User: Fold these one by one.
Assistant:
Number 1:
Amino acid sequence: MGVADAITKEYMRGSKVFSDAFNYFIYGGEQVVDPEFLHELDTTEIAIPFTLDGKSTREETVQKYRDVLKSMVVMRDARASYILLGIENQTDIHYAMPVRNIIYDALQYGKQVSEIAKRHKDQKDRKGHNRGEYLSGFYKEDRISPVITLVVHFGAEEWDGPLSLYEMMELEDPTLKEFVQDYRIYLIDPYRLTEEDLEKFSSNLKGVLGYIKYSKDKKELSRFLNNSQMQNMDNDAARVIRDITKTPIYVPEGKGEINVCEAVKDMINESRLEGRAEGKAEGRVEGKAEGKIQMLKELVKDGTLSVVSAAAKVNMTAEQFKKELDKEV
C-alpha cells in the first residue's frame, strides 16, 4: 500500500468523515447516518464457498481486504435498518472498479451466509428444518444484512472509468442484455462536485474534496480558500491535502489541528518572496553582463579589441558578438 493510500484510508476511518460521505451520497446531506452509532468491522472479507449438495469436504477460502467497513442501524421514519457500509478510496482511477466492488460485496454476503451456517452447526438446531436448509446451512427464516459500497476518488482529474459492468462489456443485443446482471458503483468524484454539492458536506471532507477539485487551477483554488471555512482542520485531513495534491505545507505528526488556509497562504507568500529575491539576483547578473558587453563593443569600435577577442571575453562566438554590434546600427 502506498503512502497516499494509507493516509486516505486512515482519514476515511474517522466516523464523522465516514458518515458524512454516506449522508451526502444517500441522503443529500441530511444527517441520517449517525457517527456515534457506527461500529468498525474487520475489513478482511473471507468467504468459504458453501456447497448445495453437502458432499464437498475441502474448504477453499477466498480473501480480500476492504479499505473501511462499518455497521450501523439506520433509523428513518420509525423504521430500523441494520446495514453494512463500506468505503473504497481511490487515489488513481481504477478501470475495473465495478468488478472489484462486486467481489467485495459478494464475499461479504458469502461471509454472512457462512457465519450463519456455522452458528446453526454450533447450536445443533437442525430439528424442525428440512434437508435443503440443513445442507445449505441457511434456513428459510435467516436473513443477511445489505451492503452498500461507496468509492471516494481522491484525484483532481475526472473519473473516466466505467461506472457499471455494462460499461465494461460490448453487449448490444437487448435480449441478451436483459439476462446479464449489471452492477453499478457509487462514486464521489471531486471533479464532478458542484459548489452546491460541496455545501451538503458537514465535516472537513468538504474542504478536502474542494481543495482537490481546484488544486490544478490557482485562481479557483485561491477563491475557494478565501470563501471556504477551512480554518482549523485535523491533521489527518491536512495530510490528505498535502500528499494528494503535492502541496508543500507543514503538517505536524500525530493528532492535532492545523489552519490549512493560513498554511497555504504562508507557503504562497514565501514562494513569492523567494521568486522576487531570485528575480533581483538574476537582474543584477544580467545587468552586469549587459554592461560588460557594452564596454567591449566600445573597445571594438575604437579598434582596441578585435571582434574575436571581445567575443571570447563573454563566452560568445564572433558571429554572436557581431549581432550585438549590429543592434546599434
Number 2:
Amino acid sequence: AEFGADALPPFKEALATAQALIEDAFERRRELDDEIADSRTKRRTFAEKILELCAQADATLDAQEQSFDELRDLQTRAPELREKLLSARGATAEQIVRIEKVLSELTTAYGPTALLSAQGTLAQARDLDALTLISLTNAETALRSGALGRAAVQVRAAQQAQDQIATLVASVDNLAVTVPALVERLKAEQLDAEADIVAARAIPAPESADASL
C-alpha cells in the first residue's frame, strides 16, 4: 500500500529464502530429536549447521529491513533527489558519448577481440540511462499524486541505474589503460623472444668428434 507492488519482489524473495533456511534448520533439529541415537560428532555438526542456517536467515531479513529503512528515508528526500538525478543525466549522457568514442578508438587500434570483456557495455549503459528517465518520470507522477512511497521506489531505481552506469564507465576507462599496456608488454616479450632466438642462432655449433680427428 505504501510503496506499490513493484517494491515487493525483493522482500518476498528474502522472506522465502529465510523460511527455507529455517525449515532446513528445523528438519535437522527433528533428526537430532528422533529416537535414533546420534554420535557426539554428528550432534555437534548438526548444531553448528543449525546455528549457521539461522544466522543466514537472520542476515537475509536484516538486509531487506535495511532496504526498507532506506526507502522510508528516501520518502522525505524524494523530490530533492529526483531533481538532482534529473540534472545529472546531462553529465551521464556525456559520459556515454565519451565511452562510445573510447571503445571505437580501442577497437580500431587493437581489434574487436581485445574488447570482448566490454561487449554490450555501451548498449547496457544506454538502456540504463533510458531506465533512469522512465523511473524519474514515474517518480514525478507519484509525487504529484502524493504517493511518496512509490516515488521513493522510483527514485531508488534511478539511483541504482546511475550507479551501474558509473560502474560501466569505469570499466571502459580501465580498459583504455590496461589494453594498451598489455599490448606493449606482449610486444616487449616478443622482441625479447626474437632477440633470444637470434642470439641462440649466433652460437657456433660444437665441433663433432669426427671433425677433430
Number 3:
Amino acid sequence: ERRDAAWIAQLRDETDRYFQAHAAYEQKTEEAARDAVGSEKLMDEGRTLLTTARAAVHLPLVTEQLDQLLKSHTGVAEARAEKAHIRAEIVGHPAAPWKLRDLAGKSHSLADYRGKVVVLDFWYRNCPWCLRSVPQLKQLTAAFQGQPVILIGMNVDKVEADARFVVEKMRLDYLNLRTDDDLLKKYGMVGCPAFVVIDRQGTVRDIHLGYSPTFYRDMNDLVRQLLAQR
C-alpha cells in the first residue's frame, strides 16, 4: 500500500502510544503478581492505562491490538491475583523440606545446604523453555563459584533416562536431583521452568514461574543481596 506522510505520522504517533501503554501495563501486571494486597488496585490501574490509550488512537492496526488486551484483561487480572496469593503463602516462610537422590543414587536433603543460598530449578526434558534457561543457569553457577551458593536442578521427568539425556547432552555442570510434581506443588508452582530461591536460614525469598531473558541478571542481584544479609 502507498500512504501519504500524514498517515505515516499518525501511525508513528499511535504505535508509540500503544507500545508505551503496553509496557506500562506489563509492569503493572508484574507488580500485581507479587502483591496479594494491592493486586486488584494495580490491575485496575493497568486497565486505565489501556483504556486511556484506546481513546487516543484511531487506526484499526492499533485499536485492534488495544481491544485485544482489554478483552483479555479480566483473565489476566484473575491469574495475577492467584499468583500473588500463592506467593504470599510461600515467600517469607520456611522452605518445604525434601530428601532426594541424584543421578548417581546419592542422597541429598535441603537441610544439607543450610547456610547457603539455594536456587532450585524445576525442569523436564520436553520443556523447551527449561532448556532455553540452561545457559543462564550455567552463567549463574559460574558467577558464584566458591561462594555459599548452590544451584540445584530438580528434574520431574517420569523416566530417568530423559534426565540423563539432558544432563549429558547439555553438559549440565551443576547438581541435578530426581523429584516429582508433588514437591513442585508444595512450592506453589504449577509448571516448568519454575525457580525457588531459599536464603541461608532456609526461608523462601522468591519464586518465579516461566522463562525470563533477564533471569541471570535478576537472580544475580537477588543472590548478592541475600549473601550480604546476616
Number 4:
Amino acid sequence: KDIHIEMNKLVMYLGGKDNIINSEYNLSRFKVTLKDVSLVDKEAIQKLGAKGIVEIDNQLKIILGPTSKALKKYIDDLK
C-alpha cells in the first residue's frame, strides 16, 4: 500500500485539511482537533485500519498503530 494515498484518504475522511485544527500523536494513538466533527467518516477511517475511534467534543482519538507519527508529519506538511 502507498502510505501517502492512505493518508490522503484519511485526511479526506477527517473532513479535509481545512477541518483539522490541530493534531498530535502518542505511541499508537493519533489525536486530532476538528472544526466540525460531523464531517468525519468514522466508518471509512476504520476500514483504513483504525483499531478504534473515541470522540470527545471536537476531538477524535484514533488508534492507528505505528502510522500515527507519519500521519502527524503528513498533516503538518499539508498546512
